[in-house]
Design brief:
Number of strands: 19
Shape: globular
Radius of gyration: 19 Å
Distance between the termini: 50 Å
CATH topology of the largest domain: Diaminopimelate Epimerase, Chain A, domain 1
CATH superfamily of the largest domain: Diaminopimelate Epimerase, Chain A, domain 1
Order of helices and strands: EEHHEEEHEEEEEEHHEEEHEEEEEH
Helix content: 10-25%
Length: 330
C-alpha cells in the first residue's frame, strides 16, 4: 500500500501527518498502532514522536487522533494540533477551524508569526482539570495537588498536577534541580508499572527566567524526554500564574529545547480555565511510502519532497539556544 504523509513539527516536537480523510485510507486500530511503532522508530528512515491522523468529523471541521511512537494513543497534543490545524486550514481554505479531539472540540486559528517567516497557529487547550482522579493520580490523602510535596516522589520538590486533558505533573525548580537527574528518576518511576500514576504521566520541570518568561523541560508519557510538549507548556504556564510567578491574561514566552511558544492562560466566568498555545507549525517534507500493513516495519520510501521551511525555524532555534546558554545552562 502506498501512503502519502507529511513530516512536520511544532517546537521540534515532530510528527508524521497522515490524511485518512481525503486520501480515503481506512486503517484499523491495530494498524494505526503498528504504523506508529514502525514509522516513528528513530532508527528507521523516517522517525518521529508520533503520527497525526487527519479524519472526518461528524460535527467539527476535522478530527485528530494521535498515536505516540510506542503505539499508545494520546488524548491531546498541543504541538500536534497546531500542525494538523495548519493542514486542515489549508485544505478547507479557512483561517479558523474547530478540530474534534478525544476529549474536546478545540479551536485553531492562524496567528501572527512568532518569529520571522514561521507559520504560526493559536490553538485552544481545554478542558483543564485539577481533580487527581482525572489524571488519574492516586494519593489517598489529597484530591488536588498545587505546589505540595509528595514524599513518595521527592523530599525537596513541590508538585502540581493538572490534566489538560493529558495528565501532567509539574514542579517549579531552581537551576541545580534542573541540572540533576531527579526529573529522569521520577519520570521513569511514574511511567513504569506503579500505583501512583497507573496510566503514566507527563513530568515537567519549570524554571522561571523573569516575568513573562519560563523554561520547560518535559518527560513525555509514551515518548521520553522530548524537545517540547505543547500541553505541558500550556499547563506550566497556567501553574506559574496560579503560583504568582506570572499573570492570567498576559502572554508568557515559554522556552524549550526545541524552540519557543507563547501561552496565555484564561479564567472564564464560570471559574474554569483554558489556555491559548501559540507557536510554529513547520513542514519538513512530503513523502510517499510503500507499506505492507501486515509488516509495516519493512516500509520503503518512494519519494521525498523538501518543503524548505526548516531554515527559518533554525534561526529561531539559534536565538533560543543563545538565550538559554546565558540563563538556564550558564
Amino acid at each position: 500500500m502506498e501512503i502519502t504523509l507529511t513530516k512536520c513539527h511544532g517546537s521540534s516536537n515532530d510528527f508524521l501527518l497522515i490524511d485518512e480523510w481525503t486520501n480515503g485510507y481506512s486503517f484499523t486500530e491495530q494498524e494505526r498502532k503498528d504504523l506508529a511503532i514502525a514509522l516513528c522508530d528513530r532508527s528507521s528512515s523516517l522517525g518521529a514522536d508520533g503520527i497525526l491522523f487527519v479524519m472526518e468529523s461528524a460535527h467539527a471541521d476535522a478530527k485528530m487522533r494521535i498515536f505516540n511512537a510506542d503505539g499508545s494513543e494520546a488524548s491531546m497534543c498541543g504541538n500536534g494540533l497546531r500542525c494538523l490545524g495548519r493542514y486542515v486550514c489549508d485544505l478547507l481554505q479557512k483561517d479558523e477551524i474547530v478540530v474534534e479531539t478525544m476529549k474536546a472540540d478545540l479551536q485553531v486559528n492562524r496567528d501572527e508569526d512568532i518569529f520571522r517567516k514561521i507559520p504560526t497557529y493559536r490553538v485552544q487547550i481545554s478542558p483543564v482539570l485539577f481533580d487527581l482522579a482525572s489524571l488519574p493520580m492516586n494519593l489517598s490523602y489529597k484530591k488536588t495537588l498545587l505546589n505540595e510535596k509528595v514524599p513518595q516522589l521527592s523530599n525537596t520538590l513541590a508538585f502540581s498536577a493538572v490534566a489538560v486533558p493529558n495528565p501532567h505533573l509539574l514542579a517549579v525548580v531552581d537551576s541545580s534541580q534542573l541540572k540533576s537527574d531527579e526529573q529522569e528518576k521520577i519520570s521513569k518511576k511514574l511511567n513504569q508499572p506503579n500505583e501512583i500514576c497507573p496510566d503514566g504521566v507527563n513530568v515537567s520541570f519549570i524554571h522561571c527566567l523573569k516575568d513573562g518568561q519560563i523554561y520547560v523541560r518535559t518527560f513525555e508519557r509514551g515518548v521520553g524526554f522530548t524537545n517540547a510538549c505543547g500541553t505541558a507548556m500550556s499547563a506550566s504556564s497556567l501553574i506559574t500564574c496560579l503560583l504568582g510567578y506570572n499573570q492570567l491574561e498576559e502572554a508568557i514566552d515559554v522556552y524549550n529545547n526545541g524552540g519557543k511558544v507563547r501561552c496565555v492562560a484564561h479564567k472564564k466566568e464560570d471559574g474554569r480555565y483554558d489556555i491559548d498555545l501559540i507557536g510554529n507549525a513547520t513542514y519538513l517534507y512530503d513523502a510517499n511510502v510503500e507499506v505492507d500493513l501486515q509488516k509495516p516495519q519493512a516500509f520503503s520510501i518512494l519519494k521525498i519532497t523538501d518543503r524548505q521551511e526548516q531554515p527559518a525555524y533554525e534561526e529561531l532555534g539559534q536565538h533560543v539556544k543563545e538565550l538559554l546558554d546565558k540563563t538556564v545552562f550558564a
